[in-house]
Design goal:
By secondary structure, this protein is an alpha+beta fold. 36% of the residues lie in helices and 19% in strands.
C-alpha cells in the first residue's frame, strides 16, 4: 500500500463529507433566497449559514461509519488475491503467530506490487445537478415575484420643521409604503419622503410618529378630502388607493394656531393604451400577385407594463361587386412572441383556405390588450387590405392583330419598363429566340401604352380613333378655276400630327355640322381645352415621347439592348416634367354681382346690417379672480388678500383642465397663503397665473370719441372749396 490505513480512511471520509455537503447545500440556499425576498437580507443570510452548518455537522457524523472494519471489508471484497487477510496488515507483528507473520509478509508484498483500489464512493452527480437546478429556479422565481404590500421598512426621520412653542405635536418620523398593482410588475417600496410617483391604482400606506402624541391626526387633501389616521401604539397609520394626482398635508390636532405644514404631492402615472405597429406588409393596400397562395402578416405591440400573450385577428372577406356584396368574418387567435412589453404577432394566411377568389377583398385587423387588471385596455391596428383584381379580359393591341393580356396603364411606368428590359436582356442566353422576341414585344406594347397616355397631355389622339372618310384622287386635282364653288371651304389646318384636314359647307350638308366636328374635328386645339403645361414643359414632354417611340421601335423588333438608351433618356425627360412647377389653369372664377357705382362714396348705409367693433377682450366674470390676484401680486409691499386667494382657489377647482399644471398652481397659492411676505413665492404664483390666464384674441381697438380739434378738422373737410 502506498498509503497507510489511517490516510486512506481520512481520504474516504473527506470525499464522502464533501459529496453530502454539495448535495444538501442547495436546500438551505433555496430557503435563504426565498427569505431574502419575503423578509430581509439579514434573515436570509442567517438561515442559509445555519442550514449549511447543520448539514456539515450531519455529514461529519455520517462519515464515522467509514472505520477500520469497513476498510478491511472493502479490501477483501475488491482484492481476492489478499486471501481475506487484510486484517493481518493492520495488526502488530509481535501479536501474530509465525504462520500469520508469513501471511502478513505475503499480503504486504502483493499490495506493494499492485496498489490497493480506490475506495472512495462516487458522487451522485445526477441528484446534485437536479437539486441545484431546482434551487436556481426557486431563487429566480422569488426574485421576479412581485413584492408583498405588507412589508414596510423602518421609519425615516421627518423633514418637517420643529415648532418654536413647546408642547405642540409635530412629525418626527415617517414612512410612505407604495404597493403598485400586481400587473405592473413593479415591486413595493418605501419612499424617502412623503411625496410619491406611482401608477394609478397603487396602494399607499402611511406610518407616522408624532412628539408629543396628538389626540387625533388626519391627511387633508387639496380638494377637501380627509383621511383620518388611526393610532397603533406610538404610530399613526392610514391607507389610500391612488386614483389621480393630488396634494395633501399631515394635520395633527393642536396645531391649528401654527403655520400650515408643507404640501405633499402624489403623482398618479396613468397606464398608457397599447400601441400596435404593422411590420408586414409595408402598405395598407396590397394586390395579389401571380401564383400567390399566402399572405404574411406581422405586427408589433408595445405597452408600458405588458401586452397579453394572445391577440385577436379579425378577417373580413368581401365577395361580389356592385350591390351584391357579401361579407364573411373569421376570427383567429394569435400567440405572441418576445418580451411582455414588446410582443410580435405573425400570421401566414392561406388564401385558398379562406376562400378568396378573383375580385375579392380580404381585410385584416389585429386587436391586442394589455395586462391591466381587472379591465384591460385594447388597441387595434390599422386595417390591411389584400385585393385580388378582377380579370381584365383580352385587349387588342391594334395593328398587330394579336390579342394580349396587359396591365392597366396606371400599373406601368417608364422605370418599370426599364427594369423589365434589363431583366430580359440578362436572360437572353437562357431563352429561346422566339420566346425572347415575344417577351421583348410584350414590353414594347407596355411602352406604347405609356407613350399614348403621356401623349394625351400634348393633345394627341389615341391610336385607333375614327379617321376622316377617304377622298377621291380626282378631288386632289381640283384647282381654283375648275368651276366648283370654293367659297364655303375653309383652309386646310395642320393638327400637329403631320396630317391636315378640311371641312366644307358641302361636306357638312350630309349631316349636322356638330356631328361632323365631333367625329372628325380636333377640339384639343381649343384655347380652354388645350394642355395645362407651359411651352417649355410641353417641349420637354415632346422629347420624352420621341424617346419612347424609339424605345418602343427597338423593343418590338426584339432588341431591348438597343431600346434601353432611349428608355433611360425618356425617363430623364419625364422626371423634368414632373418637377415643373408652372402650369396654366383655365380662366374660371366666382361670379360676383356687379358693383353699383352710384352708391360709392355716398355714405348711404341702407341695406347694410349694423356692425360694431368689439371692445378689447376684458376678463370675464369667471376669469376675474386670476386677473385680480395677478395684478395685486405686482406690488411686493401690498400683502395678498386672503379673500382673493380663496376666490382664486375656488376658480382653480372648477378650471383645472384649463391649467397646464393645476397641482403646481395649488401649491403656489398655498405657499403665498402660508407666507405672504415671501417675495419668491409671490413671483412664482404670478408667473404661473400668467401662463394659466387666457390670452385675449388680437382685435382692432375701437376708435375713441372725436374731440374738439378733430371735429373742426372733419368740418373743414366737408366744406366745398371756394373758387
Amino acid at each position: 500500500m502506498t498509503l497507510s490505513a489511517t490516510d486512506r480512511l481520512a481520504q474516504v471520509r473527506r470525499h464522502a463529507w464533501l459529496g453530502q455537503l454539495l448535495l444538501g447545500a442547495a436546500i438551505p440556499l433555496a430557503v435563504g433566497g426565498v427569505m431574502w425576498r419575503l423578509a430581509s437580507p439579514g434573515v436570509a443570510i442567517a438561515i442559509t449559514v445555519a442550514g449549511i452548518a447543520l448539514l456539515a455537522f450531519l455529514a461529519w457524523r455520517r462519515t464515522h461509519a467509514f472505520d477500520t472494519a469497513w476498510l478491511v471489508r472493502q479490501l477483501d471484497a475488491k482484492r481476492k488475491d489478499l486471501d481475506d487477510s487484510t486484517d493481518l496488515i493492520l495488526a502488530p507483528p509481535a501479536a501474530l503467530t509465525p504462520l500469520q507473520q508469513l501471511q502478513q509478509a505475503r499480503v504486504r508484498e502483493r499490495l506493494r506490487t499492485q496498489p490497493a483500489p480506490d475506495l472512495r464512493t462516487p458522487w451522485p452527480w445526477a441528484r446534485i445537478a437536479a437539486l441545484w437546478i431546482a434551487t436556481a429556479v426557486v431563487i429566480a422565481t422569488a426574485a421576479l415575484w412581485p413584492g408583498r404590500t405588507g412589508q414596510p421598512g423602518a421609519l425615516q426621520p421627518s423633514d418637517e420643521p420643529v415648532p418654536t412653542a413647546p408642547g405642540i405635536p409635530h412629525l418626527v418620523a415617517q414612512r410612505l409604503h407604495v404597493a403598485p398593482p400586481a400587473y405592473t410588475g413593479i415591486a413595493a417600496h418605501d419612499e424617502v419622503t412623503l411625496d410619491a410617483k406611482a401608477p394609478v391604482g397603487s396602494r399607499l400606506a402611511w406610518t407616522l410618529r408624532f412628539e408629543p402624541q396628538p389626540t387625533a391626526a388626519a391627511l387633508v387633501f387639496h380638494d377637501g378630502q380627509r383621511i383620518a389616521l388611526s393610532q397603533d401604539g406610538d404610530t399613526w397609520q392610514a391607507t389610500h388607493v391612488l386614483a389621480k394626482s393630488t396634494l395633501y398635508r399631515v394635520v395633527a390636532a393642536g396645531t391649528e394656531a401654527q403655520p400650515p405644514t408643507k404640501l405633499r404631492r402624489l403623482d398618479a402615472i396613468p397606464d398608457r393604451v397599447p400601441e400596435v405597429k404593422v411590420l408586414a406588409p409595408d402598405r395598407g393596400l396590397s394586390l395579389v400577385t401571380v401564383g400567390q397562395t399566402r399572405w404574411a402578416l406581422a405586427f408589433e405591440a408595445r405597452d408600458d407594463y405588458g401586452i397579453a400573450p394572445t391577440a385577436t385577428l379579425k378577417l373580413t372577406l368581401a365577395q361580389g361587386s356592385g350591390e351584391n356584396i357579401a361579407f364573411k368574418e373569421h376570427v383567429m387567435t394569435l400567440q405572441g412572441s418576445g418580451p411582455a412589453k414588446s410582443r410580435r404577432f405573425t400570421a401566414p394566411l392561406d388564401l385558398r383556405a379562406l376562400g378568396m377568389a378573383v375580385g375579392d377583398d380580404l381585410i385584416a385587423q389585429l386587436t391586442v390588450q394589455d395586462s391591466r387588471s381587472p379591465s384591460p385596455q385594447r388597441a387595434q391596428s390599422p386595417g390591411l387590405i389584400l385585393r385580388w383584381p378582377a380579370d381584365l379580359g383580352q385587349e387588342s393591341t391594334g395593328l398587330e392583330g394579336l390579342v394580349k393580356k396587359v396591365m392597366p396603364a396606371y400599373f406601368r411606368s417608364q422605370r418599370q419598363i426599364i427594369i423589365d428590359a434589363e431583366a430580359l436582356q440578362k436572360q437572353k442566353r437562357n431563352l429561346a429566340t422566339d420566346t425572347f422576341v415575344t417577351r421583348s414585344d410584350t414590353i414594347g406594347v407596355d411602352q406604347r401604352i405609356l407613350r399614348l397616355r403621356y401623349g394625351q397631355f400634348l393633345g394627341e389622339e389615341a391610336e385607333g380613333e375614327p379617321q376622316p372618310p377617304p377622298t377621291n384622287d380626282a378631288d386632289d386635282e381640283h384647282t381654283d378655276d375648275d368651276g366648283h364653288d370654293h367659297a364655303g371651304e375653309t383652309a386646310q389646318a395642320d393638327d400637329g400630327h403631320g396630317h391636315g384636314e378640311a371641312t366644307s359647307a358641302t361636306g357638312a350638308s350630309f349631316g349636322r355640322e356638330a356631328d361632323v366636328l365631333e367625329a372628325y374635328g380636333h377640339t384639343h386645339d381649343h384655347a380652354e381645352a388645350a394642355t395645362l403645361l407651359d411651352p417649355e414643359t410641353r417641349a420637354t414632354l415632346k422629347k420624352a415621347l420621341d424617346q419612347m417611340w424609339q424605345s418602343e421601335l427597338h423593343l418590338r423588333q426584339g432588341h431591348p439592348d438597343q431600346a434601353l438608351p432611349f428608355a433611360y433618356k425618356a425617363l430623364e425627360y419625364i422626371k423634368q416634367v414632373q418637377q415643373a412647377t408652372r402650369i396654366y389653369l383655365a380662366r374660371v372664377g366666382p361670379e360676383l354681382p356687379p358693383i353699383d357705382e352710384t352708391r360709392r362714396l355716398g355714405g348711404d348705409r341702407k341695406g347694410i346690417a349694423p356692425r360694431t367693433l368689439g371692445e378689447l377682450d376684458r376678463p370675464k366674470d369667471d376669469d376675474a379672480a386670476p386677473a385680480r390676484v395677478w395684478a395685486a401680486l405686482a406690488n411686493d409691499a401690498t400683502p395678498a388678500n386672503v379673500g382673493d386667494l380663496d376666490a382664486l382657489q375656488a376658480w382653480l377647482r372648477t378650471n383645472e383642465a384649463r391649467v397646464p399644471d393645476a397641482l403646481d398652481l395649488f401649491a403656489a397659492i398655498d405657499e403665498v397663503r402660508g407666507d405672504p411676505a415671501c417675495a419668491a413665492c409671490r413671483q412664482r404664483l404670478r408667473a404661473l397665473l400668467w401662463s394659466a390666464s387666457s390670452q385675449p384674441p388680437a382685435q382692432v381697438p375701437r376708435r375713441g370719441a372725436v374731440d374738439a380739434a378733430g371735429r373742426r378738422y372733419l368740418d373743414a373737410l366737408r366744406q366745398e372749396p371756394t373758387r
